[in-house]
Amino acid sequence: MTPSRYYASLQQGRIHFGALAALLVFAGGLALAWWIISQPPRIERRPPPPTPPPVVDVISVEERLQAPQLSGFGRVEAEKSTLLASRVAGQLERFGQGVLPGQVVEQDAPLVYIDQADLQLALEDAEAQLANAQALLALEQAEQQRARSEYESFGRQLSAERRALVLREPQLRQAQAQLTQARVARDQAALNLERATLKAPWRAMIQDRLVGAGSLLSQGTEVLSLVGVEQFWVRASLPGETLAWLQPGDTVTLTSQGWPEGASREGRLLSILPNLEENGLQAQLLIAVDDPLALESDTLENSALENNTPALRLGDVVRIRYHTTAMETLIALPSAALRPGEQVWWVDEDERLRSTTITLAYRGQEEALVRSGLEAGQRVVVAGLAQPREGQQVRIRQRGDTPARDDGATQ
Predict the structure, then answer these.
(1) pLDDT band at 302 (very low <50, low <70, confident <90, very high)
(2) 298 vs 295: CA distance, rounded Å
(3) CA dist., res. 327 & res. 166, Å (int)
(4) At 246, phi and psi to the nearest 5?
(5) CA nearest 397: which of 351, 335, 349?
(6) Distances 122 to 28, 69, 94, 128, 320 between C-alpha atoms, Å
(7) Distances (CA, A) of 116 to 119, 215, 219, 236, 340
(8) Which CA distances in Å does 29 have to 16, 18, 21, 40, 347?
(9) Cβ neighbour number for residue 58 with a 10 Å cutoff
């Protein structure tokens, strides 16, 4: 072989070897890429960090003699009111001085004057009839005395019936009856004349004039509308289960949005009515308020301004707070601490949750009174529980911590 051919053959072998090496490198790269892609990522497994115990709000309960704070609403109504009517027929002559709507009149004050001319004539006629009956009785007594003298001189005994006729006893009784009738007629005429002036039956406020002066009245015509001012009633309602805490005579405090700030009135629980309210089937109570219009001062304005004593108005709705006298040794809890089934969660010495079922004496919107199931000193959870478990570790919120949120309590 010539040197030139040997050199060409050697160059050709080198080219084939390089191509083969490049192909092997490319195939190895593809295999490595496929292996990398096919292998799942490896994540180092670490245990999860421990969940911090929930932060809760607690109160330390105490047992003491107490009663629930009862409150509600009531409507003011009149203790006594009347439509003053005429008891005799006649023309309304005039009203008394100051007889105007809104004015207060004293008991027995003259309110309405009815024309008395006809009534005066009727009285004079009745007095004449009485005088005539008295004269007839005197004449009959004289006749009876004469008849008795004649009977005694006759000297014979008669039967009781005949003796009564001879002595004119029927005629005497008739004359006596006529005298009684005449006296009654005279008294009635005098009474009608007195009734021509209508008077206030008690201390009252004029609500309205129902007729005007000059009106012709018949017996029973309503003239004035009056309402008593010595006392008003407030008709209130409460749930029936609260009645055990109330007794007639308990003091109540009345407030109203329309009164000056801080103004209130005192009343007393008069009675618990036997019938239930129609709409809510709640028990009805009657509260008495003396001097409802605050008339003890010189004027209504001075009473309201100087003594801060507002006047009650008929039909007004007032808020009532009851001062109950019935007391019992109980534990007070916020209603937020109660869960369905009257269940309460508390925290033991190891900061773990414990549950207990309680017996309630009273449950309101904001406060509940526990009769049994808790002991004084227990730390009751009032907020911060979402899904509590028996024995769950908790942390009691300290000052400066974020306030716990009440996620599971029921009102």
Answers:
(1) very low
(2) 7
(3) 84
(4) -110, 145
(5) 351
(6) 145, 66, 21, 10, 56
(7) 5, 14, 14, 47, 77
(8) 20, 17, 12, 19, 66
(9) 20
- Given a cut of 50, whether residue 169 has pLDDT beyond it is yes
Place of tokens 């006594």: 80
Give SS3 for 247: coil
Q: Is the pLDDT of residue 226 over 90?
A: yes
In the structure, how many helices (H) and strands (E) does the chain have? Answer: 5, 23
State the average pLDDT for the chain: 82
In this structure, are residues 158 and 228 in contact, taking their beta carbons and an 8 Å threshold? no
Q: Which of 39, 217, 26, 23 is nearest to 116 (CA)?
A: 217
- 120 Cβ neighbours under 8 A, 6+ residues apart: 193
**What is the C-alpha to C-alpha distance for residues 338 and 343, in angstroms, rounded to an integer?**
6
Cα separation, 369 vs 68, in Å, equals 7
- Integer CA distances (angstroms), 56 to 53, 99, 356, in order: 9, 68, 17
**CA distances, 111 to each of 18, 41, 96 (Å):** 138, 106, 5
The tokens describing 41, both together, are 């990522």
What angle in degrees, to the nearest 10, is found between the helix axes of 117-154 and 169-195?
170
Rg (CA), the chain: 51
- For 18-61, the pLDDT digits (tens) are 666 777 777 777 776 776 676 666 666 677 777 788 888 888 88
Joined together, the tokens standing for residue 70 give 């009862």
3-state DSSP assignment of residue 277: coil
Q: How many angstroms separate the CA atoms of 105 and 107, rounded?
A: 7
3 state DSSP class of 89:
coil
Q: Which amino acid is at 47?
A: P
Helix (H, G, I), strand (E, B) or coil at 136: helix
pLDDT tens by residue, 87-129 = 999 999 999 998 999 999 999 999 999 999 989 999 999 989 9
Q: Are 320 and 234 in contact (CB under 8 A)?
A: yes
284's CB contacts (< 8 A; 6+ apart) are: 235, 236, 237, 272, 273, 275, 276, 277
